[in-house]
């Protein structure tokens, strides 16, 4: 991106994301150049709404998933999530994933509304799975219980409910959903129940 070069930032490595660099080095795999995300944040925020190519916009959103982007990138990411067409599923998911990482508490009520809005489809998954359990309000708990029967986010809602309420309480809510008429909801419930039961068993083995 020319804007990065104009700001004195080497664009090499832009769009490259490596989760486990040490494993790749050990395997003899050459890593891409390191992109200076922190230095690039002001440029990335400026260009997020200006870029038209979905893949480039997705890369910008991914690089904004950085502590240094808190909270400056939160509002632009939320606005971008709202304006991105529903058919751009991967892009909306990437935006939501970064948004959860940088959003301040002051925006939690707005993100609750996004999580409840089915028009956002699967892009709600990061919000439901990684944020709602951290919001200490009755509305957040009520919403998680509602979303346990939403096919697009059911598994994420159940996982979040487990983290929020604890194994036994979450199990009591999730167990009846194993017989839910929706195959997706039923499968999600059975999968989450296996995780809950495994957690309970591990705790019992430790004498907890």
Describe the structure.
With 208 residues, the chain is mainly α. The protein folds into two domains: 1-12 and 34-103; 108-208, no CATH class. Helix content is 60%, strand content 0%. The chain has twelve helices and no strands. It has helices at 2-6, 21-26, 37-47, 54-63, 74-83, 89-102, 108-116, 125-130, 138-147, 154-165, 167-174, 183-205. The longest helix is centred in the last third of the chain and has 23 residues, at 183-205. The radius of gyration is 20 Å and the shape is elongated. Mean pLDDT is 88; it is low at 17-21.
Question: Brief overview, please?
Answer:
This protein has 208 residues and is mainly alpha-helical.
Features:
single chain; 208 residues; 12 helices; elongated
Secondary structure topology:
Elements: H1 2-6, H2 21-26, H3 37-47, H4 54-63, H5 74-83, H6 89-102, H7 108-116, H8 125-130, H9 138-147, H10 154-165, H11 167-174, H12 183-205
Distance between the termini: 54 Å
Number of strands: 0
- By DSSP (H or I, 4+ residues per run), the number of helices equals 12
Largest sheet data = none
- Give the ordered list of helices and strands: HHHHHHHHHHHH
Oligomeric state of the chains present here: single chain
Report the C-alpha radius of gyration, rounded.
20 Å
Model regions low in confidence, pLDDT < 50 over at least 5 residues? 17-21
């Amino acid at each position: 991106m020319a804007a990065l070069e104009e700001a004195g930032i080497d664009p090499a490595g832009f769009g490259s994301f490596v989760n486990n660099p040490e494993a790749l080095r050990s395997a003899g795999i050459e890593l891409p150049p390191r992109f200076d995300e922190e230095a690039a944040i002001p440029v990335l925020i400026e260009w997020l709404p200006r870029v038209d190519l979905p893949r480039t916009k997705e890369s910008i959103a991914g690089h904004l998933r950085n502590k240094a982007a808190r909270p400056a990138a939160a509002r632009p990411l939320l606005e971008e999530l709202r304006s991105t067409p529903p058919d751009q599923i991967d892009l909306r998911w990437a935006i939501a994933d970064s948004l959860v990482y940088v959003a301040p508490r002051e925006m939690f009520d707005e993100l609750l509304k996004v999580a409840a809005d089915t028009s956002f489809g699967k892009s709600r998954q990061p919000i439901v799975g990684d944020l709602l359990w951290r919001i200490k309000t009755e509305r957040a708990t009520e919403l998680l219980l509602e979303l346990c029967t939403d096919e697009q986010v059911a598994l994420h809602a159940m996982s979040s409910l487990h983290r929020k309420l604890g194994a036994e309480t979450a199990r009591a809510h999730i167990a009846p959903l194993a017989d839910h008429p929706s195959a997706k909801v039923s499968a999600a419930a059975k999968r989450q129940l296996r995780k809950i039961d495994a957690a309970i068993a591990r705790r019992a083995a430790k004498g907890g």
